[in-house]
Amino acid sequence: MQASADRTLALGLLRETRNLPSVSSAAIAARGLLRGGGLKTTVGLPGSQVSGAEGLNTDMNLVSPGYFETMGMRLLDGRLFAARSMSDVQPRPAVVNQSFLKR
Fold first, then answer.
1. Is residue 1's pLDDT more than 60?
2. What burial letters (b/e) apply to 86-98, b meaning 16+ CB within 10 Å?
3. Cis omega (within 30 of 0) on the bond before 93?
4. Cα angle: 9, vertex 15, 18; to 5 degrees
5. pTM above 0.85, yes or no
6. Spatial distance between the Cα atoms of 46 and 34, rounded to a whole number of angstroms
7. d(CA 100, CA 16)
């Protein structure tokens, strides 16, 4: 219940912030850009059973649509998050860096 209330508050604050006249872009991230650590997961191909030793262990950060544009990050391929990406559809969309992709 608390997570739902926190999300509702955060999205409301984001909406209000984006509507301020001097704000050109705003987004939300669960973790600061250079903070490190936090959410960790093991990733594998869909349908595979992957152990921590053989999978790709990675840090995760949950971000709102507009995050990459707000941070001035350039997308090399694919598409950025849209509001529809924030739904409970599985699997959830992900953006990865070049090191992750090469591995």
1. no
2. beeeeeeeeeeee
3. no
4. 135
5. no
6. 29
7. 35
